[in-house]
Specification:
308 residues; mainly alpha; 0% strand; globular; transmembrane; cell membrane; sodium:phosphate symporter activity; NaPi_cotrn-rel/YqeW-like; membrane
Length: 308
């Protein structure tokens, strides 16, 4: 029982830390993000690249998509121009998983201490930077905590049932990733938890990869919710985000065994293997779809047509 309480507490701290990191970064860069979005959306390549950068800065594809949908719903940005951003935001979101896969046992405390000093004693801009540093340090703390508590959690009947369900098939692992990410509203949190279990050897690489694929779909829920009251163009944008991620998963599935074998060669650490897969998968799927932005746009309009 205590293991579950600790686990839930770590999830709460992780979410709070992600929010703190995002809040600090947003305070430092929010005006630049809005200006750049409007400035660099005149060409698909520019929009694609700027979405990668700013999703990385925000540490959240969901947060970036909410901004994009907000612009689309107000008419500042067209649905068609948002498509390259959808492709780019998936790549930008992988920076977080790559970062948290790095072992930073000592540096973690440096980040936390430096962040606290900046928050307490710094002036305005330093306080914002301090929030980001402190949040990042706490994220590493939570990842370390997930790894330590994974062994305790595996003795819990609920955890065993969940792990057995994931092992049943790739589809159940994908579904698990989708549902959990939709509930938590953060693929980074879910992948962080996954890394903890994988480091303890309780989740195999292929199951972990399948979970990440599902997490890619589950992260769309925030954009879908943001678009509900945002008008047709906003719903088309959110729908395109979902369709793109689902298609990416479907294209990946037939090659899952080969991909698993390849990813296993990239690193010895399970956490880094998962992080590398997330990066490579999102880069590959985005680049694969990029030349087909026009037909993809037409397909979404066919599925969710403009009102006449």
């Amino acid at each position: 029982m205590m293991a579950i309480i600790y686990f839930c507490a770590l999830i709460f701290i992780f979410l709070w830390s992600m929010g703190l990191l995002r809040k600090g970064l947003m305070a430092l860069t929010s005006s630049r993000i809005e200006k750049s979005l409007l400035l660099f959306t005149d060409h698909p390549v520019k929009a694609f690249l700027v979405s990668i950068v700013f999703t990385g800065v925000l540490q959240s594809s969901s947060a970036f998509m909410v901004i994009v949908i907000g612009f689309v719903s107000t008419g500042i940005l067209t649905f068609k121009k948002s498509i390259p951003m959808i492709l780019g935001t998936n790549i930008g979101s992988t920076f977080t998983t790559e970062f948290i896969a790095i072992k930073m046992d000592v540096f973690m405390w440096v980040l936390i201490a430096t962040g606290l000093v900046c928050i307490i004693f710094g002036q305005r801009s330093f306080r914002h930077a301090g929030k980001s540093l402190f949040g990042l340090g706490m994220i590493f703390f939570c990842i370390q905590g997930f790894s330590k508590i994974a062994g305790m959690m595996t003795s819990q009947p609920e955890t065993l049932r969940f792990l057995e369900m994931m092992q049943h098939s790739d589809w159940t692992a994908i579904l698990s990733g989708t549902i959990l990410t939709a509930i938590v509203h953060s693929s980074s949190v879910c992948i962080g938890i996954l890394m903890g279990f994988m480091n303890e050897g309780t989740v195999a690489l292929q199951e972990g990869i399948s979970f990440v694929l599902g997490s890619n779909v589950g992260t769309c829920i925030t954009a879908v919710m943001a678009a509900i009251s945002g008008g047709l163009a906003a719903r088309q944008t959110a729908y395109a985000h979902v369709v793109f991620n689902v298609l990416g998963v479907l294209l990946c599935l037939p090659f899952l065994t080969l991909i698993t074998q390849f990813v296993a060669l990239l690193a010895s650490s399970p956490a880094q293997q998962i992080a590398h897969f997330s990066l490579l998968f999102n880069v590959a799927s985005s680049l694969l779809f990029f030349p087909f932005i026009r037909p993809f746009h037409a397909m979404i309009l066919f599925l969710l047509p403009n009102q006449t």
